Structure formats: structure tokens, C-alpha cells
Amino acid sequence: MTRSRRSLALLLVAVVGATGAACGSDGPLAPSTRRALDEARATWRSRNVRHYEFETEGSCFCPLEVIRAAKVEVRNDTVVKVTYLDGTAPPTNMWAARPTVERLFELAAGAHGEYIARVEATFDRTYGYPTSVALVAKAGIADGDQSWTARAFRVLP
User: How many domains does the chain have?
Assistant: First the structure.
């Protein structure tokens, strides 16, 4: 892994980790959202999808190359290709910062800590993958919100 790619991967881990410090309860994750997340994750894992593509788009205080709407191809939980919807591609060192389905689950499930007020998430009924994940920061926390959407999911051979 190149230095810049490793740095971006660490940035994503830091963002998830900063919001993911365990606090002994579901914190900002409402019980109904926790149940829906657990059921959706079980559905996703039962499908055993190893190669897929989907469109993702993020909203956060992050580099545009990371959040801009794009088609993302994932194989064995590793991003292997990213193409913006206009057909251009971001630099390959930015690919590791793109969420996979598993990372979207981790983001929703691990969203605890002193900065997050609540977590909102929706899930696909067929495959269980998160179609949206939003971390809503507590009042007074500048640039603390983060959200991702996922759509146009397709299993690949």
C-alpha cells in the first residue's frame, strides 16, 4: 500500500474510530435502529455477496474525491474500482477511503462518542445493505455530521 493510500485508509479509520468509541450502551443508536441494523447485517451476510458494485455519495467535511457520487466496485470487501458518474475516475490513492457495504455497517454500528447525537440508517429489503447512514452531530459541533447513500446495487460474477 502506498504512503498516500495508507494515509487515506488511516483517515477513514480515524473518522470511524472517533465516532466509534464504545460507551457501554447503544448511545445515539436508537433500539429500533439497532434491531434494524442487526437484521439487515444478518441478511447481508446470509447473501454471501463477494463481488458487487453500487453507487455511493457522501456528505461530510472530507475531500471531494471521497464523497463525490461514484460507482464503486468491491471484491472481497476491497474497493477495486471507482468511477465518477460522469465516467472520469478519482486518483487510485483515494479508493481506499470509499466505503464498502461492510464499512457502512461499521459506521452505523460504531457511531458512539461524545460528538454524535443520533444515527439514522435505512436498509435494502432484498440484500440488507445500508441505503443510507447519517451521523448527526450534537448541537455546537462544527462539521461533525456525516452521511452516505448507496443505490444501484448489483451483484457481479
Answer: 1
